[in-house]
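Retro notes (design track)

What went well: tokenization of the new backbones is finally stable.
What didn't: we kept losing track of which sequence belonged to which structure.
Fix going forward: every design gets posted as structure first, then sequence, in one message. First example under the new rule, 555 residues:
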């Protein structure tokens, strides 16, 4: 009977979290993903090409052959694929959604809801079920989560970071409690985070280790830390199929675009201006309200004398203070001293950890309220007011900023129709100005290749993603430029193995055809980093399965 009551209660909580997520994401579900945001257009563009190649038989579309006006793009050698795999599952059901706006909107809603579910699972470990439900709903409604990431920035992939991050701490908590399968869960959730949003994975990486160190019993501390570290190492291995090429092939694209003055980390500290505008103003009040809520919840929860609760609140309060510091101009020397930190790009991304910390502290505070006396009524009132403010202000501000009057008009279609990739993924052999101009051109069969030197008769036999076959006849040899961007993964075959070259300025794929009649085959051939990543991930997956079987047998 008690078990049935618990199941009904859990079902009711999950329904409430789902309703909250749908309510907050309603405009995205009805009208499609917000197009007029910082990044909304690029996610729609990537999804269009990624899902097209995936359903066309390419199991991992790293090179998007039709992007940039048919010239190709290496975007998914560097950008995490998990959110696009999930969104691509909807393609057969939304045939009329050619540009992917509705699919992105539905998956954004799913990400909000799933983040609430995973937060509920995690917070239930440190507080009661009712409290976990309330704190999970506030986690979904956290202003940075919904207002900044979804409706202002259009940070589609970062929304999925909020799904996996609570699971990481759920399994870290289980490791502390001695659950056998917990390291496997931590490894898988960490790998999913890496393959969904790499900057957030970098931000979160130290915290599970710190969590095990602070919250485990003294006699279990070393074991917990080692298990958490080993699990995260296994997670790195599972994600190597994406991660290894992403970190080793950056020299082939234009990552210097991310170092321009307007996107440098110094420009995006919070509390850096007395009169902030736009996103900066939102970020200032988001962090200020979160910090006040964290402080009040910490004070309220301090009346709970339980040792586990004490460790939890101290860990999360210290974590909140650390990340707030790293988001302010005071931390500038730290950012300059640690170049690796600069890969996170925007200091405000530490709001993900702040949202986790506030949710944990709110759960602990709510849990201890019944044990509290009159002395903390003011703090309880502040926490309640901030929670109410988030629940009202988040949908109000988010929906107000959602430009529904543009959603189905020409401007939105043009965002994707222009078909130009993000500049940081421009192959480095392509002149920046030429990239912007030629990428916007349509390319039919007639101009997919041309003779740049010499004379030759050439025709296309095969043209599909990853494989191009040409028939070339020349009396004295000729040089041909093929309308795909050069990238080191392209290899040519004509009698003997030849190497492709980048054409000057244009960066197109250039091949030299010898005299005579030849069938020239151009293929995408994995580089060493890509092959190594595949092998490491395969071995890590095999190890994960073996460990899972072994641990399950011991239970």
């Amino acid at each position: 009977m008690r078990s049935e009551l618990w199941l009904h209660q859990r079902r009711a909580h999950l329904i409430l979290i789902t309703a909250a997520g749908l309510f907050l994401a309603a405009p995205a579900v009805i009208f499609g993903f917000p197009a007029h945001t910082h990044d909304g257009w690029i996610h729609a563009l990537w999804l269009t090409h990624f899902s097209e190649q995936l359903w066309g038989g390419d199991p991992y579309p790293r090179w998007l052959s039709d992007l940039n006006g048919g010239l190709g793009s290496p975007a998914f050698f560097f950008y995490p694929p998990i959110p696009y795999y999930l969104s691509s599952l909807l393609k057969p059901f939304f045939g009329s959604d050619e540009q992917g706006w509705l699919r992105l909107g539905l998956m954004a809603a799913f990400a909000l809801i799933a983040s609430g579910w995973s937060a509920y699972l995690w917070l239930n470990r440190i507080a009661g079920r009712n409290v976990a439900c309330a704190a999970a709903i506030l986690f979904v409604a956290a202003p940075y989560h919904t207002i900044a990431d979804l409706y202002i920035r259009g940070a589609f992939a970062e929304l999925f970071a909020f799904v996996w991050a609570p699971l990481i701490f759920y399994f870290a908590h289980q490791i502390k409690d001695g659950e056998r399968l917990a390291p496997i869960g931590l490894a898988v959730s960490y790998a999913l985070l890496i393959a969904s949003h790499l900057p957030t994975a970098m931000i979160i990486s130290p915290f599970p280790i710190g969590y095990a160190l602070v919250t485990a019993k003294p006699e279990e501390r070393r074991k917990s830390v080692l298990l958490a570290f080993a699990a995260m190492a296994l997670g790195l291995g599972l994600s190597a199929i994406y991660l290894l090429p992403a970190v080793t092939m950056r020299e082939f694209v234009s990552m210097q675009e991310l170092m321009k003055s307007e996107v440098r980390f110094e420009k995006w500290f919070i509390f850096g201006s007395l009169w902030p505008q736009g996103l900066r103003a939102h970020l200032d009040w988001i962090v200020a309200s979160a910090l006040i809520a964290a402080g009040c919840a910490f004070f309220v929860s301090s009346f709970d004398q339980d040792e586990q609760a004490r460790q939890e609140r101290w860990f999360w309060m210290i974590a909140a203070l650390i990340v707030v510091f790293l988001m302010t101009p005071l931390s500038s020397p730290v950012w300059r001293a640690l170049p690796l930190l600069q890969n996170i790009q925007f200091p405000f991304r530490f709001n993900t950890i702040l949202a986790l910390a506030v949710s944990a502290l709110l759960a602990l505070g709510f849990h201890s309220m019944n044990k509290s006396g009159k002395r903390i009524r003011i703090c309880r009132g502040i926490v309640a007011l901030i929670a109410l403010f988030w629940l009202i202000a988040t949908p109000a501000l988010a929906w107000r900023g959602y430009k529904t009057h543009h959603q189905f008009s020409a401007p939105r279609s043009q965002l994707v129709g222009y078909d130009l990739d993000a500049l940081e993924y421009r192959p480095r052999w392509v002149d920046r100005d030429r990239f912007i101009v030629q990428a916007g051109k349509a390319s039919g069969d007639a101009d997919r290749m041309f003779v740049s030197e010499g004379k030759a008769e050439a025709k296309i036999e095969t043209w599909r993603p990853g494989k191009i076959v040409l028939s070339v006849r020349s009396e004295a040899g000729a040089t041909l430029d093929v309308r795909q961007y050069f990238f080191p993964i392209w290899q040519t075959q004509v009698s003997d193995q030849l190497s492709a070259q980048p054409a000057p300025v244009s960066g197109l794929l250039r091949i030299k055809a010898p005299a005579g009649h030849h069938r020239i085959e151009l293929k995408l051939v994995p580089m060493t980093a890509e092959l190594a990543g595949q092998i490491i991930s395969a071995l890590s997956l095999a190890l994960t399965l073996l460990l899972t079987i072994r641990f399950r047998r011991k239970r």
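Added context from the reviewer: Confidence is low (pLDDT under 50) at residues 404-410.
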